């Protein structure tokens, strides 16, 4: 029997992205560090997975548990999220405030729910629209802007610093704060859709 590889039609986590995939120029998720501004102007840095198929922005509960004390503006959420498999997940809490990507700042909000460890922070379409994001797939860069400035950012999934810290069992789209939690394996993250 001939081996036929299975390709995920949609994958939020790209859990097994390898150096070989990057070297062969295979399509990989776009990740970049972002900062959430705390109440005294301090920066809470997370790795964001840019996904214009997501109808919300979201933080995984694993990251939330590590940074919740550094941010204010938390409020209860009544949002229910429909995953691609049809399951409905309750958002635990939501946040709104200033999101900073390389000194380009925008007011935004996100919901918090358990991603299963596949990603730490998801920048969904509404936030990407707020940043006026334009993805150049040929160079795998995204141009963003606010009222004061514009900048083009590179996909950080290809940065060697991220690759040398990883073995085959960890997601390149996971936030660095998750790596210690995920070491040794992970569950498949839930796919998502907002209802």
By helix and strand content, what is the structural category? alpha+beta
Oligomer: single chain
| Biggest sheet layout | 6 strands, mixed, barrel
Pick out the low-confidence regions: 160-193
Rg is 16 Å
Mean model confidence by pLDDT: 78
Helix content class: 10-25%
Word description of this protein:
This protein has 195 residues and is an alpha+beta fold. The protein contains 5 helices and 13 strands. The longest helix has 7 residues, at 61-67. Mean pLDDT is 78; it is low at 160-193.
Primary descriptors:
195 residues; alpha+beta; three-stranded antiparallel β-sheet; 5 helices; 13 strands; disordered C terminus
In short:
The chain is of the alpha+beta class. Helices cover about 15% and strands about 35% of the residues. The protein has helices spanning about 20-25, 60-65, 125-130, 160-165, 175-180, and strands at about 30-35, 45-50, 60, 75, 80, 90, 95-100, 105-115, 120-125, 135, 140-145, 150-155, 195.
Give me the secondary-structure topology.
Elements: H1 19-23, E1 30-37, E2 43-50, E3 58-60, H2 61-67, E4 74-75, E5 80-82, E6 88-90, E7 93-101, E8 104-113, E9 121-123, H3 125-130, E10 134-136, E11 141-145, E12 150-154, H4 160-163, H5 176-182, E13 193-194
């Amino acid at each position: 029997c001939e081996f036929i590889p299975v390709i995920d039609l949609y994958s939020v986590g790209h859990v097994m992205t390898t150096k070989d995939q990057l070297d062969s120029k295979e399509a990989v998720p776009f990740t970049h560090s972002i900062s959430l501004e705390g109440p005294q102007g301090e920066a809470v840095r997370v790795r964001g997975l840019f996904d214009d198929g997501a109808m919300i922005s979201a933080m995984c509960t694993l990251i939330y548990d590590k940074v919740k004390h550094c941010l204010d503006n938390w409020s209860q959420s009544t949002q229910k999220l429909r995953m691609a498999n049809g399951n409905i997940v309750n958002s635990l809490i939501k946040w709104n405030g200033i999101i900073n990507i390389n000194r380009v700042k925008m007011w935004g909000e996100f919901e918090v729910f358990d991603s299963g460890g596949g990603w730490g922070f998801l920048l969904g379409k509404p936030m990407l629209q707020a940043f006026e994001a334009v993805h150049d797939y040929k160079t795998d860069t995204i141009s963003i802007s606010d009222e004061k400035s514009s900048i083009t950012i590179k996909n950080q999934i290809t940065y060697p610093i991220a690759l040398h810290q990883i073995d085959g069992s960890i997601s390149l789209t996971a936030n660095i704060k998750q790596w210690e939690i995920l070491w040794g394996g992970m569950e498949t993250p839930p796919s998502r859709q907002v209802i």
